[in-house]
Amino acid sequence: MIGKGAKNLPKEAIPPCSRGRLTAVIAAALIIVAVFNIVAWWYLERYTPNTGYLLIRAKWALLASLKKPIDLLILGDSSGNQGVDPETLRDNLGITSVNLCTIGDALVLNDAWMLEEYIGRFGPPRAVLVVHGYDMWSRDINVSVLSKIPGSWWRRRPDLGFGVKNRIRVILNRYVPLYAETASLGWVIRHPGSAFPSRLPMRPDGFMVETTAEPDRVKQDVEVHLQFIRQQERVLSDVNRAALRLIVQLAEANDFDLCLVPGPIYDSLASDSAFLVYFAAVRDTLAAVTASSPHTRFLLTAPVTFPAERMQSADHIVGAAAAEFTSRLAERMRSMCIDDNLDSSSTGCR
């Protein structure tokens, strides 16, 4: 039975359809979507909850802000971002350096492009540290992440074979967040109280200071790493191989030392037999790729290890441990005469 209130229900009067009216409705809808997209793009450029994207943007901005040459470039992923402290290098070696490390999914490609960008502006640095976690080398292209790297990098070396389809994906990922960053926007909607997060704890020299250890998370992270190792059928992807070769070519052509460094590791994981086998395979593969380069050095043949109480995850250390890790690197650089090459008054040790 229809209640008495039914007679008070509104009755829609649908106007006759015309091409002009339909065009106006579609145009209005597109304008509304465009406005929302612009607002979302503006917001995510400044307050994205995706710290990986934020870190890439911050490090490229740091590179662009450099006003004069420096002695040492520190490139790599997040293990180097919070593991290598330029202040400690200065105190130990008396050199200037900047930490431009980003995230693992940016691959060695990001290292190569940053290095080329720096050389194009200032000429070659005196040395380059490339610091990566062991598990980065097998990774392949992630278009969503690479899209956050500025510039028309698909025109750069190495040739990625990016056709029209992938370039469209880059454009969508860069400029259409309503399509590409729904997870970030959804997170913001669900957590309005965190819509305007504080900035990264990054110093002017690029080092990201993390102070809170998470030992329970570190121990849980071990199984994630071991599962990764069990599932891997390769240790070096083609794209990382090509990017590493490009960096080696730049070192040879410009006469600077290239130092490859494995990121720090939780001591319990580093003693696992499966990890040791996989790490050795990575090290030996990288050695084979760089064998013809007298400028390429392996500062460490085994990772520096730390207890869970000094780490955030199984491959990320906190600031106090970073000073120790960086001091170890400085000692190795000194023992291999790399610090002589960084001294402008020296003739070098080669």
Task: Give an overview in words.
This protein is an alpha/beta fold and 350 residues long. The protein has one domain: 3-Layer(aba) Sandwich (Rossmann fold), CATH 3.40.50.1110. 51% of the residues lie in helices and 9% in strands. The strands form 3 sheets. Strands 2-1-3-4-6 form a 5-stranded parallel β-sheet, sandwiched between helices. Strands 5-7 form a two-stranded parallel ribbon. A two-stranded antiparallel sheet has the order 8-9. A hairpin with a 2-residue loop joins strand 8 and strand 9. Helix 5 packs parallel to helix 11. The chain is elongated, with a radius of gyration of 25 Å. The model is unreliable at 344-350 (pLDDT under 50).
How would you concisely characterize the structure shown here?
With 350 residues, the protein is α/β, with parallel strands linked by helices.
